[in-house]
Design a protein that fits this description.
Elements: E1 2-7, E2 13-18, E3 31-44, H1 55-68, E4 71-75, E5 81-86, E6 89-94, E7 97-102, E8 106-109, H2 116-132, E9 139-149, E10 152-159
Parallel strand pairs: 2-4, 4-8
Antiparallel strand pairs: 1-3, 2-3, 3-9, 5-6, 6-7, 9-10
Helix pairs in contact: 1-2
């Protein structure tokens, strides 16, 4: 039998800055969100009435959220943004703007853009790599949801089995 485990704990959250890039010449102003995350895991129920110790899944999501908390998120793969590293600074070069960041305050992510859609994909990829690739968990499908505020978010889903 299959079941879905839904995990959206109070500590699945991170506060981060970003800007969305709309084109080679248009972007949002720098701003931030109090993001929340959740994961839905479809897997088999064993004869003992359990799936697996999903405390392990909770810790994996908490770790991912902590890794982004209180940083400015920059998309390393954007065709419209160039990142320049000089000593302990990062410069985000967009059109004719050179936006400075202390290296310790910025997180470069392998994304095209910092959007809830791309963040959901990144979380899903990381969650699979860090947790869900274990065959003993018998995971069939994963879905990760990232919200940038109440009523605004994206879910990325992947079939694994």
């Amino acid at each position: 039998m299959l079941t879905e485990i839904h995990l959206a704990k109070e500590n699945f959250k991170f506060s981060a800055g970003h800007f969305t890039i709309f084109s080679a010449t248009e972007r949002e102003n720098l701003h931030g969100h109090n993001f929340t995350a959740g994961v839905t895991i479809q897997c088999e129920v064993l004869k003992n009435g359990m799936t697996f110790d999903y405390g392990l899944a909770k810790r994996a999501m908490e770790t991912l959220c902590r890794s982004l908390n209180e940083t400015f998120l920059l998309p390393a793969n954007s065709p419209h943004l160039r990142i320049q590293e000089v000593d302990d600074h990062l410069f985000a070069i967009f059109a004719d703007e050179k936006i400075p960041f202390l290296r310790r305050d910025a997180t470069l992510l392998p994304l095209e853009n910092v959007t809830v859609e791309e963040l959901a994909r990144w979380f899903l990829d990381q969650f699979i790599k860090d947790f869900a690739s274990e065959p003993a968990y018998r995971i069939r499908e994963l879905a990760v949801e990232i919200n940038s505020g109440p009523g605004q978010g994206a879910t990325m889903r992947r079939h694994l089995a």
